[in-house]
């Protein structure tokens, strides 16, 4: 992983339905609530090969 980021440090984009965090390449890492509900913790950047690990409590998303 490029880094480990807590979900509280990410921004919510209601239009896209994703949490995002700035990537060094200028784009942003993204992960959806559905991915989080499925215990996925890897947010990817669509513009480069970097990924981050999202630190969160899966129980917060289990009703998705």
TrEMBL record:
Reactions mediated catalytically: 2 [3Fe-4S](0)-[protein] + 2 Fe(2+)-[Dph3] + NADH = 2 [4Fe-4S](1+)-[protein] + 2 [Dph3] + NAD(+) + H(+); [3Fe-4S](1+)-[protein] + Fe(2+)-[Dph3] = [3Fe-4S](0)-[protein] + Fe(3+)-[Dph3]
Positions of the DPH-type MB domain: 1-57
Family annotation (InterPro entries): DPH3/4-like, DPH_MB_dom, DPH_MB_sf
Matching SUPFAM superfamilies: CSL zinc finger
Segment forming the signal sequence: none
UniProt xrefs under PROSITE patterns: DPH_MB
Pfam families per UniProt: Zn_ribbon_CSL
Pathway: Protein modification; peptidyl-diphthamide biosynthesis
One GO biological process term: protein histidyl modification to diphthamide
Coiled-coil features, chain-numbered ranges: none
Keyword set, alphabetical order: Iron, Metal-binding
Entry's Gene Ontology molecular function annotations: metal ion binding
Family, per entry: Belongs to the DPH3 family.
Subunit structure, as described in the record: Component of the 2-(3-amino-3-carboxypropyl)histidine synthase complex composed of DPH1, DPH2, DPH3 and a NADH-dependent reductase, predominantly CBR1.
Name of the protein in its database record: Diphthamide biosynthesis protein 3
Organism: Fistulina hepatica ATCC 64428
């Amino acid at each position: 992983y490029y880094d480990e980021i807590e979900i509280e440090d990410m921004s919510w984009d209601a239009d896209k339905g994703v949490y995002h965090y700035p990537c060094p390449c200028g784009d942003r890492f993204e992960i959806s609530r559905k991915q989080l509900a499925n215990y996925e913790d890897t947010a990817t950047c669509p513009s480069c090969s970097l990924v981050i690990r999202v630190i969160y409590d899966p129980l917060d998303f289990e009703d998705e």
